């Protein structure tokens, strides 16, 4: 069963999303909240997003977070051991 949630990307929405996805394992919740946090950090607080969690035919779970900005593409960064950010997309 696909779960689809429309929400605003705010710091308060991160733990709320984690709670709404409590039926999923920790990896799914982590991916969804990392993607939501990336929207907050890179597009700004209050950006409307859609979160979709979908089981696949192969037994995996697909996590999608979409936003309205067609110009903003994700960029994978190479974080060092001492960097405090830059790992979100690599985790996903």
Automatic annotation (TrEMBL):
Q: Which domain of life is it from?
A: Bacteria
Q: Which CDD domains match?
A: HATPase_RsbW-like
Q: What Gene3D superfamilies does this protein's entry cite?
A: Histidine kinase-like ATPase, C-terminal domain
Question: Has keyword Transferase?
Answer: yes
Q: Which UniProt keywords apply?
A: Kinase, Serine/threonine-protein kinase, Transferase
Q: Where is the Histidine kinase/HSP90-like ATPase domain?
A: 27-92
Q: Is Cell membrane among this UniProt entry's keywords?
A: no
Which protein is depicted? Histidine kinase/HSP90-like ATPase domain-containing protein
Q: Which organism is it from?
A: Streptomyces thermospinosisporus
